[in-house]
Amino acid sequence: MTIYNLGSINIDHVYRLAALPQAGETIHSQSYGQGLGGKGANQSVAAARAGAQVHHLGAMGTGDDWVLDRLRDAGVDTGGIARLADEATGHAIILVEQGAENSIVLHPGANGALPADRIAAGLRGIGPGDILLMQNETSLQAETAARAKAAGARVIYSAAPFEIEALRAVLPHISILAVNEGEARQTFAAFGEDLPVEGLLITRGADGAEYRDLLSGKTTLQPAFKVEAVDTTGAGDCFAGWFAAGLARGEDVATALRHASAAAALQVTRKGAGDAMPDRAEVLDFLNARNS
Ligand code: ATP
């Protein structure tokens, strides 16, 4: 079964600085790094490395071909990514002050200007058993979710970055809502706990995760694995991508949660987001080592 991912594609530009610049100030950076980011691209890479067949639906500018190479290297089908001549590839300027706060400027660019005809065409093959993954970093969320649901697919939505109105628009069309602890709190405050979805995935960082099956009332808990975390950026995307891949391959919820938790534990021991997603062999080795 296939995962279609309506997802953002960002280039992360990371500058390390002695101090964040004040208004009107020009400063030199101490180092610069560039990486693949965006919650959409991260989840596509995670699900593909988990062994799922993944079609990414999205858009980017006309340059930056390395981004497509990076996605393809991970096993993602990039045929559904439109190239827009008049939009920049989405990007984040990330200023990291040593030992302190970050400041981030996010430019959605092509992520906010997805061509409706290309996305509809990319979704044409979706059907029962397939999954549409989505996050709140692109345009066309509600209409794409409605189309996937009408075709009989399940829709898994990460409500991040959290926006009440964006969630309200997609809520009637989604099957599983994926949130972290803070997003869960905001969701319950706005909509109550009796949500109109079949399942709720809540991740709680080093405190683990839970899946609430709202149809049966059963909750499955998954503790986090104990590891030395060095960079937790993208942990939620790793978990969501792996969980979706587990469901797509027909795993039961407990197995999908366990694999997702192991994958996210490995991911937080590495620097980076999309580039740090582990593959299936690494996750199975990790689990075998923990069992022995
Ligand atoms: P992000 O926004 O950084 O992608 P998130 O807030 O969406 O993260 P979290 O709830 O922080 O997501 O983490 C997702 C999952 O990753 C957790 O449920 C857990 O399985 C794993 N994880 C996160 N932090 C750790 C950690 N320090 N040790 C082990 N596992 C972790």
Automatic annotation (TrEMBL):
Catalytic activity: D-ribose + ATP = D-ribose 5-phosphate + ADP + H(+)
GO MF terms, alphabetically ordered: ATP binding; metal ion binding; ribokinase activity
Source domain of life: Bacteria
Regulation (activators, inhibitors): Activated by a monovalent cation that binds near, but not in, the active site. The most likely occupant of the site in vivo is potassium. Ion binding induces a conformational change that may alter substrate affinity.
Keywords from the UniProt entry: ATP-binding, Carbohydrate metabolism, Cytoplasm, Kinase, Magnesium, Metal-binding, Nucleotide-binding, Potassium, Transferase
Cofactor info, note text: Requires a divalent cation, most likely magnesium in vivo, as an electrophilic catalyst to aid phosphoryl group transfer. It is the chelate of the metal and the nucleotide that is the actual substrate.
Quaternary structure note: Homodimer.
Family to which the UniProt record says this protein belongs: Belongs to the carbohydrate kinase PfkB family. Ribokinase subfamily.
Protein name: Ribokinase
Species whose genome carries this gene: Paracoccus limosus
